[in-house]
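Dock 6-O-alpha-D-glucopyranosyl-D-fructose; give full complex structure.
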Amino acid sequence: MRDDQPTPTADPALGRPWWKDAVVYQIYPRSFLDTDGDGVGDLPGITAKLDYLKALGVDVVWLSPHFDSPNADNGYDIRDYRKVMAQFGTMADFDAMLAGMSARGMRLIIDLVVNHSSDEHAWFVESRKGRDNPYRDYYIWRDGRDASLGGGPPNNYSAFFGGPAWTFDQSTGQYYLHYFAAKQPDLNWENPKVREEVHDLMRFWLDKGVSGFRMDVIPFISKQPGLPDLTPAERRAPQFVYAAGPKLHDYLREMRREVLDRYDTMTVGEAFGLRPEDARDLIDSRRRELDLVINFDIVRMDIDGWRKTSWTLPRLKALYTELDQAAGPFGWNTQFLSNHDNPRSVSHFGDDDPAWVERSAKVLNTLILTQRGTPFLYQGEELGMTNYPFQTLDDFDDLEVWGRWRDVKHRVSEAEYLANARAMGRDNSRTPMQWTSGPNGGFTSGKPWLPVNPNASTINAEDQAARPGSVLAHTRALIAFRRGSADLREGGYRDIDPDHEQVFAYRRGERLLVLLNFGRETVRYALPDGLTVEGAAFGAAEVEGQVVTLAGWASVILAVRDV
Ligand code: ISL
């Protein structure tokens, strides 16, 4: 532990928190189900599918931002933290959705986006009116660099959605900071009034009955003192500087003292810019900061900025072991392979060829649901939904794709950039849920805000709900199995064959061995000596003595005994 950290208190004598055993399902409301024909998903659409989620075995829903927003970044630019986005419905719709979840024994966590607001938020509208406005210090305003030093923005920070992280405001002659889009000005957490405003809005939603928050880019809220320039090396991945401010732990402990400890909550920090060893303090239960983090090590293992690189199974396995060990005895990991910012897991880590997509999606969902930690499934992952076949850049909605293109178009061909965006672009996971093989995949009766994947004709919930052996059936059964298995929920984790190029083989607890074939070739996998197979605990595989035959993209959970 760093010597600048407070001495942790003894781990509170708390029972096992409910969120350790929960299965979380992330909903991107814009793309879940549209009930009023405007082509955009809405809250009544979620309410209409609560029985579907309950049947799947979902315990907690993580709802991406549902707040009033101009949608510069599809809701991650909030204009009013206490108002439901009109396209999604009303506060009454929210209350009905939450009541429906509670009636089914499900909890809801919502997205806390407080590193920045929308530039249309009343606070920013006031702040930009004048240097002496009471709201001026709700945001981060600075004079430009001295003319003798060339003028321009205060430092060389870059924004993740292209261009500099500073925008000049003519009316007051200063620049304001925005790590993301210019329409997403960063809030000034040094200002206690900002922190009090955030605490108040958290209480507003907790008092309505939500069970916690996923905290958007929360490591960024503490800024570097003096905001010095980035070095050339830091400019390649500025998130590691933006996430290393000195007061993050203070702000989180204050948030816990002032708000969270007064409620029964689950808190998940999006740890963009933190390495596993940096995140460890955030999730150390003795420190009472966050419960969980969403880390980037696996989902971004083959992304370098806008470029897709490559990954190997041994490297993936090494990351699982590193993250498991980094959590240590007082931490707990999230387990996920996709979300609204990353490509579809079956296209990223599986095999989305129509002949293999179902089998490989089942392998990946088995990985998510049998690893040690709290599983997070992303909407559509239970179906094996795939990336979208984007044809041109004009097919993309995401400001990240467009912002990065502006940054690189002078030195990268459009064909090369498009190939990378097709593989890794965030819109891949934002195409509408595929409910049926009918028009627009059953998502809307109108024109969908983003096209529905043409393969909805063969990959959809209606078909899979009726078909044993579907990804949906497999995922549903495995969630039920996991619920009944202390080995999976609480047991230890150990990779028994880290170097194998195609098979991922790991022990869970005392009695389970998970075998995943990450390829099309059948593998006759030799178990280590000293291990006796007692049978298949979940799934099936041919076992002859110490050899297990794994068909292409097959998975099996074996009951084993050490002899
Ligand atoms: O990695 C990224 C930046 O290069 C983005 O995919 C993403 O911005 C990053 O993971 C942070 O994500 C969160 O904050 C963003 C929002 O666009 C994302 O949807 C959100 O998950 C700004 O609020």
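Observed: Residues 1-12 have pLDDT under 50 and may be disordered.
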